[in-house]
Write a structure and sequence with these properties.
Low-confidence stretches: none
CATH superfamily: Ribonuclease H-like superfamily/Ribonuclease H
Structural class: alpha/beta
CATH architecture: 2-Layer Sandwich
Distance between the termini: 37 Å
CATH class: Alpha Beta
Length: about 190
């Protein structure tokens, strides 16, 4: 990475949507902003989606990100909750697409792994690691975990983009294994 790049992270939600903004210069990242879009007072589902679009668009206008990293929805048992979360994520993505911002999606486990070394890390552990890595003060950490999760998505993308092998693209695990036979040799078990 050369020059300056702004990465916006989003943790989708239907009641609280987290956002975080990183400034990357060379191989150093610093937190610029983190916060939440509070949707608790908006009762109509479609008005919530409109509010998400407006607020994400506003954050984009304020920080002018070069890329967006967004947390992928996790699969749960409640189909209605997943549908609502997917809609919220889709609207945030649409706001970025509307401004021609490239989007990169990361699974929650991938984000946790990138920051803590384990995909089973708690939200507290992720926030604590961000605080140490980015040297955030206690006042900045008083945000909701949705905000730190969004900043973690942006930081995960920064780490992925910093690695030369991250330029490869894979459609599936099978595609990865086919293209990386040496890396996966001996992993069957």
């Amino acid at each position: 990475m050369k020059g300056e790049k702004i990465i916006m992270g989003i943790d989708p939600g239907t009641n609280l949507m987290g956002y975080g903004v990183l400034r990357v210069v060379g191989n150093k990242a610093e937190a610029v902003a983190l916060g939440v879009i509070d949707l608790h007072k908006v009762s109509d589902t479609y008005l919530k989606l409109g509010h998400i679009f407006e607020r994400v668009s506003g954050i984009i206008s304020e920080y002018l990100p070069d890329e967006m990293a967004i947390e992928a929805p996790f699969f749960g048992k409640n189909v209605q909750s997943m549908l609502k979360l997917g809609r919220a994520q889709g609207v945030a993505i649409a706001a970025a697409i509307h401004r021609d911002i490239p989007i990169h999606e990361y699974a929650p486990m991938k984000i946790k792994m990138a920051l803590t070394g384990t995909g089973a890390a708690s939200k507290e552990q992720v926030a604590g690691m961000l605080q140490r890595i980015l040297k955030l003060d206690a006042e900045q950490m008083k945000q909701h975990f949705d905000a730190t999760d969004a900043l973690a998505a942006a930081y995960c993308h920064f780490m992925q983009a910093s690695r030369p092998e991250s330029q490869a693209s894979y459609r599936s695990w099978k595609d990865f294994a086919t293209k990386n036979k040496e890396k996966v040799k001996g992993l069957k078990g």
